[in-house]
Amino acid sequence: MIISMKLHSTKEEIEQVCERIRDFGYKIHAIEGEERVVIGAVGTGDTTACLESVEAMPQVEKAVRISAPYKFVSKEYRTERTRIRVDDCEIGGDEFIVICPGFDAAAAATLAGRLIAATSTRTDGTAVTRLSVGSTAAVSGDDPESILGRADQAMFANKRRGTSR
Fold first, then answer.
1. 16 and 59 Cβ atoms separated by less than 8 Å
2. 3-state class of 49 per DSSP?
3. What is the DSSP string of 85-150?
4. Is residue 30 within 8 Å of residue 38, measured between CB atoms?
5. What is the C-alpha separation between 154 and 79, in angstroms, rounded?
6. In the list 9, 40, 46, 88, which could disulfide-bond 13, CB 3.0-4.6 Å?
């Protein structure tokens, strides 16, 4: 974050702002000019809450977020594809999963059809990609591995048939 203090802010006012920023877990780098002080804040605290808190202080002219709010899931921060383990199942990597609590088989099929349509046609009408979909519904006593296993089986059955279902 970059915080620009109002013209001719006192040392006490500047220290109040620095203390507020430190309270959110950030380190401070102050740049003192002849008329104005600019404060750089670096770290991994709650940026939104800190910005709102600092902007409300009367001695602050402007506070600006520098990093993207979702940088930890962006390709710039982490280039490899995310993989998450749930029990013995791995989710992610080259595949993605959509989990829809409360969906029955018909609702899942409708969503699958919409995903296929949305990803398979450019606005100029030319095909861009193929999407293989497998869906299943959870039943009482299921564990994540059995649910994902049935969805995988359905997806591979669709691939063998050469269909997008």
1. yes
2. helix
3. EETTEEEETT------TT--HHHHHHHHHHHHHHHHB-TTS-B------------TT--HHHHHHH
4. yes
5. 30
6. 9
Q: Show Cβ contacts of residue 124 under 8 Å, excluding neighbours closer than 6 positions.
A: none
- Cα distances from 106 to residues 15, 82, 95, 141, 150, in angstroms, run 60, 30, 23, 22, 16
Is pLDDT above 50 for 132? yes
Nearest to 17 by CA among 61, 66, 69: 61
pLDDT at 165 over 50: no
Provide the terminal-to-terminal Cα distance of the chain, rounded to the nearest Å. 47
Q: Indicate the pLDDT class of residue 128, thresholds 50, 70 and 90.
A: low
All domains of the chain, ordered by start, with CATH?
2-71 (3.30.70.1140), 83-161 (no CATH)
Q: Which residues pair with 49 in a beta bridge?
A: none
